[in-house]
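tool_call predict_complex ligand=3-methyl-2-oxobutanoic acid
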Amino acid sequence: MKNTVTTLQEQKLNNDKITMLTAYDYSTAKLIDEAGINTILVGDSLGMVMLGYEDTLSVTMEDMIHHSAAVARGAKNAFIVTDMPFMSYQTSVYDAVTNAGRLMKEGRANAVKLEGGLSVCPQIKAIVDASIPVVAHLGLTPQSVNAFGGFKVQGKDTQAAKRIIEEAKAVETAGACMVVLECVPAKLASYITKQLSIPTIGIGAGNGCDGQVLVYQDMLAMYADMSPKFVKHFGQIGTAMKQAFADYIEATKSGAFPAPEHTFAISDEVMQEITENE
Ligand code: KIV
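tool_result ok
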């Protein structure tokens, strides 16, 4: 069954945790979808885990559209949320609606995600008015890494915590259908989850949120450039991949690969005719 804004909202009401993982390509999206995920995030984290940038700031609209469309071809049932990249919505409400429209039309997303609270509420409202579902993102918002002075936990003191609560209520009022809470204290995330009628999706925000999201390369131990405290490895796929690559190199060098079963045959008569006529 296809997941939609309505089914995700029902999950919150029924206390049924919402599952979200990132994906950036067709094959991975297909595997994640077939495993039964509720939603796939085509995150701008692709700048780091797929393209090797040190942060998400260099990611372009073209990058997001390209990867979102690939994910959409692979995922049948997951609700696809695609990130609006840095400076595709902060600049104006017009840019925000135009670029959100491109992610839907060309990237085949089901919703767009953007970072920030009060300062982007006019953008959220305008995108929602254009019938495009919006997922908000509060707490550690990676596009603001330079303003934050690094990837740090947010909302630890009274003033900062109150600000996140205020922003969560504001994005809900502006029309957001979900909100990602990244790197905020677990008790604060639980409190916000109870205050809101829309689902909260946590990453580094404890288990009191309505759902959880992880970057798939993080949960499969495939990306070691950064290892945040909130990541749990659900498989050692990075190690398994490296071993398989090494096995392939060895088998190729030794001639063990390809074996007869990987090879196409030709009859001896045909070979004889060819060599005789040379
Ligand atoms: O880009 C991304 O993957 C994200 C998650 C970390 C929530 O925004």
